[in-house]
Amino acid sequence: MAETKRRRVGRPSEQVLSRVLIVEAALALIDEHGAQGFGMRDIARSLGVRPSALYNHVENKDDIYRGIRELIGERITWDGLDDAPWDVALAAWAREYRAAFAAHPPTVALLAVMPISPTSSVSVAYDRVVHALGRGGWGRGEALNVLVALESFILGSALDAAAAPDMMDPGERDDVPEFSAAYREREELVRSTGASPADQAFETGLQLILDGLRTAAAARVR
Predict the structure, then answer these.
(1) CA dist 83 → 51, 138, 178 (Å)
(2) Closest CA relative to residue 73, chosen from 136, 119, 39
(3) Which of 27, 71, 204, 211 sits most deeply, having the most CB atoms within 10 A of its CB?
(4) Residue 144: closest CA among 161, 131, 157
């Protein structure tokens, strides 16, 4: 009897391909090569299939980008957005949002300007954020502006998380004494707290934003 030919481990046959598998492969290529780091042939090669097989599950690269956005969005849990105090809910959402994108820095610039698909689960998440802000007294239009402002800060912080910790080191110079002293003091905070410069900046910014929102919310009920 002829020996049965076995498929190589880790390379799926066309029969087990799925949209999720293709999107995950594309995300891995983006992580490795940057925002434009894949083509359909690259994905097919990484999965060990013919490029034509991909089109049984995705339409084109834009469809894959939409899938990546959904994939990352689904990694953000939304526990507490419906029940927790609005400011607690926003803080938890912001931290998880940043963590999800900080894990894939090349996707930030790519996905931040991508229109939302009509069937996107991201819209469901946004709906819950708007609802949480509504509990703080914001009208829906204002709440959307708050959401976008927060999202801009979060995505910028996700990029900052990928930067070198010493990116702002002024070096040995005496013409910027305040900045140099500030950098040294922050380095001491890094050593004493264990929190990275990016994490410290994010938490400081988030606290300032939330404090401002709390002040605005309190003024509405006077």
Answers:
(1) 46, 17, 44
(2) 119
(3) 27
(4) 131
* pLDDT tens-digit readout, 116-174: 888 888 888 899 899 999 988 999 999 999 999 999 999 999 999 999 999 999 999 99
- DSSP assignment of 160-185 equals HHTS-TTTT---S-SS-HHHHHHHHH
> pTM score, two decimals?
0.84
Give 71's contacts (C-beta < 8 A, 6+ positions apart): 20, 23, 24, 27
**pLDDT, tens digit, for every residue of 28-76?**
999 999 878 889 999 999 999 999 999 999 999 999 999 999 999 888 8
Supply 132's token pair: 């949480």
Contact present, 203 and 195 (Cβ < 8 Å):
yes
